[in-house]
């Protein structure tokens, strides 16, 4: 993960007495979970199953896109409501890894079950997507909560960027395997091959997540006995949600995340739907485009991770949001294939940069000992944004019948995010997080 001379900067060195130091292979094992779970979002949410649901499973249904975005909104609402409590429970019991394993098994099983969904199976498909996406979102929060335990504060952007970059590599690999499987099928069996790609995605997720569970160490000690964990966790959640004192800049940044992640979540959710319904791309063309976008997203995560640690968290994130606005303007203004490819790759750079930068900044503003709780709040903010953005897109496309106007409206989320980002004082927020960790 880093050159030998950089190891002392990248790996966290300060631990309480008796806590096992971080081995460098743990950074790789942590990042491998990003590699593992990215196949789910890439194949199910972004590239294949979403478009398959609209075009085949719910074919002819006037509100097909709205049904899809509503199902995702429901799953995000469940994660949003449960994430802070699960995070606080994991903090109190020191068992983030156990929760992570359970959520991974549920997501893998739900993804594999999507193989059974064919034309007309609207209810079954939506139930499985809701369940698997709840599990995915829960695991996403839990793996992020390990970041402050592993990386030095001066390298959070870099390490987060490594994870996101490896994650896009995992999404690319899974998507490439699915594309090969679909293209290898006879035209008459193409629909079945699309469904079978869900099983491929589940298997890759399960296998790639093994290093995380075998190597990553749980360092957070239990704070209370098992019998008192729920009561203590609930009190912690109420305090963190109700209090307006203390971590003001973390709270301001969480509001910023809700705004700009609404735009990010919309693009992730409707990418293949937009290219096929608004731009006339075939399924194979859409998959190829999203494969390339995964490459540029990996570049964006790596490049902006380095930039973030050198030039500052707020500047780097603000630059990525500005790039998002340029990409959406190009995508809305032209149907030219060359312009669409340019816009998509700008969006890819911005995607990797903004997601990695946001996670790293939350870790930077997080007091020690409250990682799972704070990243549960991060998950709440992200999932709330994933309700607002895609649902707004689905409603606009249903009311207007115009996907292009829906995409244009998405730009407003990034504008609001940029405005809210200006209210975050990163240095003050970090100082307060350090003080809270010492008290």
**DSSP helical segment count:** 18
What is the CATH class designation?
A: Mainly Alpha
- Superfamily at the CATH H level? MFS general substrate transporter like domains
Report how far the terminal alpha carbons are from each other: 33 Å
Helix/sheet category:
mainly alpha
Form type:
globular
Helix content: over 70%
- Element string (H = helix, E = strand): HHHHHHHHHHHHHHHHHH
Reported for the largest beta sheet, the result is:
none
Mean pLDDT: 84
**What's the total count of β strands?**
0
Given as residue ranges, the uncertain stretches (5+ residues, pLDDT < 50) are 1-9
Query: What percentage of amino acids are in beta strands?
Result: under 5%
- Radius of gyration, in angstroms, nearest whole number: 21 Å
| Count of spatially separate domains | 1
* CATH architecture name: Up-down Bundle
Instruction: Predict the CATH topology.
Output: Growth Hormone, Chain: A
